[in-house]
Specification:
The protein has about 110 residues and is mostly beta strands. It is built from 1 helix and 8 strands. A hairpin with a 2-residue loop joins strand 2 and strand 3.
Length: about 110
Amino acid sequence: MIPTFFGFSTLQQSNLEGRYKIFFENEYHSQNGVISFNIDSYKRTLTNKKNISGTIEYKKNKVILNDENSSLQMELSKSEIDKDTISFRTLNSNKKVEESDIIMYEGILVKLK
């Protein structure tokens, strides 16, 4: 019975689900809107009504949102995904430089109730 319990506890993983208001820093505010998560995919609706879809990649300590047809990614800390407010940063996956040099924009997600 102990191995079964241990196996069950290691399989449980927090996933992104629900709807969040997305706020980018001022320079990139045109990308603000609402993002809806469904475990392994998402859809963003910008304030100008443009829709962007993508996939969610769960890593050891972070979660990567990969927009379809784009090299831009959003990175979230896995430790924050159960919170009502989640910080994020955007990255350009095409750049081959040090991680600290490729942060483009930052912002927050606020859970909609």
